[in-house]
Write a structure and sequence with these properties.
416 residues, 14 helices
């Protein structure tokens, strides 16, 4: 239970930050419903929140960006000699237990019509249906057997789905993966704000928050102690990937070897854009440093440019398949990446305790993006794979990147 001093302090903070609506709400509700809100208020960084809100009210500063092509290596055009060299370098890291895997799994399966953490979504692959978490566990187990190691597996959840995710793994006996080698840690949250800057009260009498974006994984790893643990265990390279790609190659010795050979601290797998208009972020150099530019920011003329071999100059799609040295992770864990704002629909409880369901976007959500960390390195290694071997995401209920498309790609890959 909160103390009278904490309640007094919370009220003072609300008043100082013009959150009169929350103040009035707090004064109306019963004492047993106040505790969570009081604790939240005492932990919110209102200075940061004000800055983020103020930025939504100003025209974003259009910085001149010099966009250039970024080099990549096509895995399927490598000579046998290079492929063998990269593989040997990568396998040495894996066999010496200097490699760990991180899965970003903080989201819910809402867009798929699934109730629960996205990793608990079941996809109807052959010979039997499997959960997304199960597919990843099996892929790691294959690598463990191949290299005679047990790879540490770190799973980033969110306050929204952590409890359910841990329970799910326990109920399924970790899909046979050694329990002691699986660790969960949570990403941070940021409050949502209404158009007038007010905080939002949710139906469970808490201030409504949302996960702060995949770009906050670096700080979450540091804050949770995961980064220290990785360092103490003498791990040199860390793979970070998403939970929803059923063909994700989390243990790729060629990717590791390429980064080592090119002396880069960061490496990423890409696939070629299907066509110039495909709605994916692509790798480039922006003002001389590695970047991922959103499809909406890339001028049409540039999106259609091709090189002498007919390849798109800006055709390397970022597929959330990233590799970092321990030094790179330590570096970016100390950097505050920029937040991007999205205007979303958010139901809320009004001052009178009535829950309002909205039909139109009404709230600002703030997120950091994982690839913004690339800007802090002079260069990175990019290995182009093949869509049919590396990229089968489950994002939409139907159409592109849906369970149907992912199922076909998965079945084709494993039944070649």
């Amino acid at each position: 239970m909160y103390t009278e001093q904490e309640l007094k302090q919370a009220k003072m903070i609300l008043k100082e930050n013009n959150q009169e609506n929350i103040l009035r709400f707090l004064e109306k509700i019963e004492d047993n419903k106040k505790e969570k809100i009081v604790k939240q208020i005492l932990n919110i960084d209102f200075k940061q929140l004000k800055k983020l809100y103020d930025e939504t009210k100003t025209e974003p500063e259009i910085l001149e960006k010099k966009i250039e092509h970024i080099g990549y290596v096509d895995e399927y055009k490598l000579t046998e000699e290079k492929k063998d060299r990269y593989t040997a370098l990568g396998e040495e890291v894996i066999k010496n237990s200097q490699y760990a895997v991180v899965t970003m799994a903080g989201g819910q399966g809402t867009r798929l019509g699934h109730k629960g953490p996205k990793g608990t979504f079941k996809i109807d692959v052959k010979p039997e249906a499997k959960y997304l978490f199960q597919i990843l566990a099996e892929n790691l187990e294959r690598a463990n057997k191949k290299y005679n190691v047990t790879l540490p597996w770190y799973i980033m959840t969110s306050t929204e789905n952590n409890k359910e995710t841990v329970k799910f793994f326990e109920e399924h006996a970790y899909f046979g993966y050694p329990k002691e080698s699986v660790k969960f840690f949570m990403q941070g949250n940021l409050p949502l704000l209404l158009k007038n800057g007010d905080l939002i009260i949710d139906k469970d009498y808490t201030i409504k928050e949302a996960a702060d974006g995949n770009g906050c994984i670096y700080r979450a790893m540091a804050k949770s102690g995961v980064l220290d643990e990785i360092k103490q265990n003498n791990i040199k390279w860390i793979f970070i990937g998403s939970v929803d790609n059923v063909l994700l190659n989390m243990v790729d010795p060629i990717l590791i070897g390429l980064a080592i050979e090119e002396k880069h601290e960061v490496a990423s797998k890409s696939v070629a854009k299907a066509n110039p208009k495909e709605r994916v972020g692509v790798f480039c150099k922006a003002n001389g440093v590695p970047s991922v530019i959103e499809y909406s920011e890339l001028p049409e003329k540039m999106a259609e440019q091709r090189d002498e071999e007919g390849e798109l100059l800006f055709g390397e799609a970022h597929i959330m398949c990233n590799l970092f040295s321990i030094e790179a992770l330590e570096k970016v864990s100390k950097i505050h990446l920029p937040y991007h704002v999205a205007f979303k629909k958010s139901n809320y409880m009004n001052e009178n305790g009535k829950f309002i369901e909205v039909g139109e976007p009404n709230a600002y959500k703030f997120e950091a993006f994982i690839f913004d960390a690339f800007n802090f390195f002079d260069d990175i290694s990019i290995l182009r794979g093949k869509r049919e071997n590396d990229f089968a995401p489950v994002k939409n209920k139907e159409g592109n990147d849906s369970p149907d498309t992912a199922k076909k790609l998965y079945n084709n890959y494993w039944n070649q």
